[in-house]
Amino acid sequence: MRLSPDDIIYWQYGFIKLNATMVFTWGLMLLLIIGSIVITQNLSTGLTRSRWQNLLEIVVTAIEKQIEEVGLSQPRKYLSFLGTIFLFVALASLCTIIPGYEPPTGSLSTTVALALCVFVAVPLFGIEEQGVGKYLKSYLKPTVIMLPFNIISEFSRTLALAVRLFGNMMSGAMIVGILLTITPFVFPIVMSLLGLLTGMVQAYIFSILATVYIAAATRTQQREPEPDSGGQL
Amino acid sequence: MLIDWFTVAAQALNFLILVWLLKRFLYKPILNALDAREKRIATELANADAKMLEAGQERDAFKRKNEEFDQQRAALLTNAVNRATAERQKLLDNARKESDTLRTKWQEALRSEHRSLSEELTRRTREEIFAIARKTLADLATTSLEERLGEVFVRRLREMDSQAKKGLAEALKTKSDPAIVRSAFDLPAEQRATIQHALNETFSAEIHVRFETAPDLISGIELTTNGEKVAWSIADYLGSLEKDVSELLKEKTEPQANADAPPEQPANEHGT
Question: What CATH number has the domain bearing residue B181?
Fold first, then answer.
């Protein structure tokens, strides 16, 4: 049984290979970039604007507002990173309605890559905001004894991020595949709808958790990093 | 193995490229557009506020100007009304004055005409009467009027009452100058002699008499000496006639003058 689109390999040369995950990712990237370019070509600064511009403005301002609500006082600084995570994951889930499409987020490699990006980005943003010393000191809070736990927490939450998204996306595709063999026609459609909902929720969870991690790392008035509250999802 | 590390690296790279591309093509333009719109709205609101303020100021200014204009108009109107009233009064006064002047002139003209008419009437009446009397006397008697006048004068001298005669005699005696006999015409020598004779006879003395001609006597003879006078002339009768005629004219013209009749009307009436 195929669990990941990584297994669909179109071309391979040594360890370099071109699999479905990468191809579909490029497809999504093209869709996002071309869509953005087309819509933002004729942006209106007046009181009237096109529907597509309106849609993009709603999306961008909603993300910005969400980031601000979590506690980052300068949302625009983190908007590109966090917004892209949300848009990529959400679009990957949304496109599951297209027949023959395999969501790249259903591959553990992709989710691990995203989680690693977050794993790297959090200390980078933290250091940029507070400085190296102050950021590193935050691992010793509240006591030195907590240092190993803090470090373990860093790795475990990254793993949790990756596995949570992978599990949810993979299960959605898996369930549809299994149901198709048992009860065709009606149930797969219901499960697809459920999969869409799950995908959206996961996109939101992934990006909001990344935001929370960054917020915790960049907070000048040092607070204990958020426990991995979404770990059970 | 679920995790393919080459794919992980490729996906991480893909993701980073996507972040950069989206930042370049999506977030930046959209946020710029949003900022521009917000700025524009803020500017427009500020402009609207400024315009509102300006409009308020202009409205106040206009209101003030309007009030000033109303006041000026009212002042001008009052002034004009006052001047018109004054002008009207002045014109009325002038008209009244002119009317008074005309009325005075007319009355003066009327009076003058009346006077001249009256004089003319008197003159003509006298002449007519004189002519009538002369003709009548000439027709009735063989003697001329002058003769008759002389006779009347002589008779009057003779018929004087005693008191008058006495007074006259006294006057004649005391007076050294000759007594003056005045007549409207040159008395003929015969008549002069008659008068002289009558005087001498009446006062039983030689009376010195000097004869004079006085046209204003009008067919009459008078003897004057030292303030005393014996006279007879048609002028006396004419005087009474003139008085009667004058009264008659006065009665006729006065009502017309009072009725503001045109000046020609009474003249015509009198002419007839």
Answer: 3.30.360
